[in-house]
Amino acid sequence: MIELGELRLNGYGLLIGLGIWLATEVSVWSGKKEGIKKEVIEKGFWWVVGGGLIGARLYHVVDYWEIYGKNWIEILMVWRGGLGIWGAIGGGGVGLLWFYLKNKDRLGLDLFRLLDVAVVGVPLAQAIGRWGNYINGELYGKVTNLPWGIKVMGVEGKVHPLFLYESGLNLGLFALLIWVLIRQKGEGAGGRVAGTYLIGYGLTRFFLESLRPEEIVWQIGEMAVAQVVAGVAVLTGIVLVKRGARRGEELPAGKN
């Protein structure tokens, strides 16, 4: 928390806000390439962000219900941290679908094209937001002797900087999505950007989850919930990529 006189700035919230803003700007840029008007992106933005924030908080609250169940008012204190990314992805997807169904006839768009445009900037936002986790002392890994290990309050020794690992991998995924978007064939071949994101981020979280301390991993039985969700995301991504590739091949030559 930074204090300037009476002005209080929360670093976590600022970084989350910056990430959302940049992701929206990327969506506007990619929307131009796909022939989607800026107004559509901006209106859909509120549905995606609103759904994403609700979903992210719900995921986190369910994960830590033993804490929030005893003090419900803390559920509303999002500025203290506590947003589950899988909840954000699911909630944002629901928000986008709701927006699309309410405006389908007026938009005249394929849902998968809109999905690609909405997703392309997400890993950039995540890469920035993970530094907010660092500010809050969140998203760290197991104790390590590696030279780049970091100190975390309340933990003896140095730990893996998972926030840094994921931030770097998300930046690489963002670059990959831009490449996929540029190479995407035709208006009816949407879905490959979103699919690539789900595969890339699903694999990232699946492997990084194994580096988290066991005592802070949300598990059902012997399975880490985040890894199960990551596996579902990868499978869904494969379906979307294949769908987009198949539709791209079916398009007339003039549409490519």
TrEMBL record:
What's its top-level EC category?
transferase
Q: Where in the cell is it found?
A: Cell membrane
Q: Which InterPro entries match?
A: Lgt
**MF terms (GO), sorted A to Z:** phosphatidylglycerol-prolipoprotein diacylglyceryl transferase activity
Q: Can you quote a single GO CC term? A: plasma membrane
- Major location, coarse class? membrane
GO biological process: one example: lipoprotein biosynthetic process
- Transmembrane stretches in the record are 12-32, 44-62, 82-101, 162-182, 189-208, 220-241
Question: What domain of life does the native source organism fall in?
Answer: Bacteria
Per UniProt, a 1,2-diacyl-sn-glycero-3-phospho-(1'-sn-glycerol) binds at 130
Report how it sits in the membrane.
Answer: Multi-pass membrane protein
Look up the record and name the pathway of this protein: Protein modification; lipoprotein biosynthesis (diacylglyceryl transfer)
A Pfam family that this protein carries is LGT
Keyword line: Cell membrane, Lipoprotein, Membrane, Transferase, Transmembrane, Transmembrane helix
Which Enzyme Commission number(s) are on file for it? 2.5.1.145
By sequence similarity, the record places it as follows: Belongs to the Lgt family.
* NCBIfam families reported for this sequence: lgt
Instruction: State what this protein does.
Output: Catalyzes the transfer of the diacylglyceryl group from phosphatidylglycerol to the sulfhydryl group of the N-terminal cysteine of a prolipoprotein, the first step in the formation of mature lipoproteins.
Q: Output this protein's name.
A: Phosphatidylglycerol--prolipoprotein diacylglyceryl transferase
Q: Give the species this sequence originates from.
A: Candidatus Chazhemtobacterium aquaticus
